[in-house]
Target: YhcH/YjgK/YiaL family protein
Amino acid sequence: MKKQLILKFALIQIILLVFGYSSFSQNMETPCNEASIANWYETGAWLNGLQLVPHMSIDQGELASQYCRNPDWWNKAFEFLRSHDLDNMEPGKYVIDEGNVTAFVSETPTKEKEEIKWETHKNFNDLQYVIKGKAKMGVASATDSKFTSTMAYDSEKDVENYSVENGKYFVSTPGTFFIFTPQDIHRPAIHVEGYDTIKKILIKVRVP
Model:
């Protein structure tokens, strides 16, 4: 009888443990759970120790969707930013994951707004970070903004250009990065008075 009670108690403990773990797993803050995207994003664990701040304009839902489907590409991009001395990095192309994640470091004069076209990409996200100086970033939603296409999609260059009526502009400074997904019409690196030259890194992350 005593042995049966012990076995029964052990069985109950196992059931409770399994049930509890299952409930915990279902409620974990992950990008794959739509209800927990905001908490997943807010914790910043997805940055893997990167101390830069994601800009408020980033589409959290779209980023979470892509991260969930292929976290490896995003982890490599953030790790590259975290582990390199960006201030002293030479301009050039840096292959992080062949065909999937590539960084381009540039140190060039900024252009006036009229010289830069609104654009989107289908196959790659743009992660843009101004390392030195300041520049304006134009952002408009491909689902909510008023826009018309001015150049049809070029599959070779992975770009389409637009005329946008109601885009928003934000000043990009060291410490904060932007991510432009295929849902974001963007107009990057526009001249800010007093900052004729900027150093910038662009990381192209493939869309899963």
In short: The radius of gyration is 22 Å. The first strand starts at residue 53 and ends at 54.
